[in-house]
Amino acid sequence: MARALVFAHYDRDGLFDPYVIDALHAFRRCMDHVTVVSTSAQHLPAALVPLVDRFIARQNVGYDFCSWRAGLAALEPTEQFDEIICANDSVYGPLFDLAAALSDARVADADLWGMCLSEQGTKRRGKISCPHIQSWFFGMRRPLIASQAFGDFWRSVVPLANKDDLIDRYELGMTEHFAAAGFRVAALYDARTAGPLSLREMWPHFSLWEPQRLLRLLKKSRRPRHNPSELAYKRLLDAGVPFAKVSLFRVNHYGLNRGRIWEDVGLTTPYDSQLIRAHQQRLATPNSGLF
User: Fold this and answer.
1) How far is the C-alpha of 203 from the C-alpha of 36, rounded, in Å?
2) What is the pTM of this model?
3) Do residues 256 and 205 touch, judged by C-beta distance below 8 A?
4) Can you tell me the distance from the alpha carbon of 280 to that of 291, in angstroms, rounded to the nearest whole number?
5) For residue 2, how far is the Cα from the chain centroid?
6) For position 203, what pLDDT does the model report?
7) d(CA 181, CA 144)
8) Pairing with 60, which of 158, 178, 217, 221 sits 20 to 30 Å away (CA)?
């Protein structure tokens, strides 16, 4: 299988952080071609030059979907590849073997596949179920790549100023567009069949010393739709997803037990947790002014 990667990069300081360099080393081992599109760096660091086939620097407009659109355009003819992976730097990893995920039987017959399929909607759509592949990692295979639907979707991608609009139109819209065209969609972790989180799963994140946080977390964990890559991160790891969201460690939207997150990600995987610590430490400091 001829496989290409289009990697969307952004860093507030204009850097290629060591965790990103590590990720591209891991991706390179599984890819025949690697394109990196950056909205914050003007050139590759020396460590990445041997790994990257094409580098594209562009203005910081349109978020990652516009970066992927630019990278896909540079791959023409895209039909030369059996599979094109689009990914970004909003996750740490691969935390363990990426090759196993790429060949997993659960996604082997899919035309559009990803690491995580979420049912969470957007502010624009209210609380209805909106099944979609989360866009921090998704793969498209030859039947889809060679289709009219592929060209129609990617030609429709234009810069949008509002992130909620972008998620609604492109992240949710991509899955809807290709599914409506008859293409098969799958993920290593599928929230539609996973069921609600149990109290046993959430217990390590509860604290009797913080009753307000406990009640908030309990309420959110019982909702039928949430962000699986954050609230159910342990389930994703158990499902063979070799990534963890950067925001899980920093923003921590659900107020999870940070110590338990470190234990689950940093201590039970072979990944160098120092890459996470160093990046989080840099994020916690004022902008360095490098960019």
Assistant:
1) 40
2) 0.94
3) yes
4) 18
5) 22
6) 81
7) 9
8) 178
CA 173, 174, 176: angle at the middle one, nearest 5?
Answer: 65
The runs of H, that is alpha helices, within the chain are 18-28, 63-74, 98-102, 142-145, 148-156, 163-166, 173-180, 191-194, 199-202, 211-221, 228-231, 233-238, 246-249, 258-262, 273-283
Max CA distance (Å), the chain: 58
- Which residues fall within 8 angstroms of residue 185, CB to CB, at 6 or more apart? 110, 111, 112, 113, 117, 131, 133, 175, 178, 179
CB neighbours of residue 120 within 10 Å:
22
Is residue 290 over pLDDT 60? no
Round to whole Å and give the CA distance between 120 and 134: 10
Residue 291 has pLDDT above 60, yes or no: no
Q: Which of 257, 202, 204, 248 minimizes the C-alpha distance to 229?
A: 248
Bridge partners (DSSP) of residue 6 are: 35, 86
Short-list 194, 197, 198, 192, CA closest to 129: 192
Residue 266 tokens, joined: 């940093």
Specify the residue for token string 């039928």.
224
The yes-or-no verdict on residue 1 having pLDDT over 90 is: no
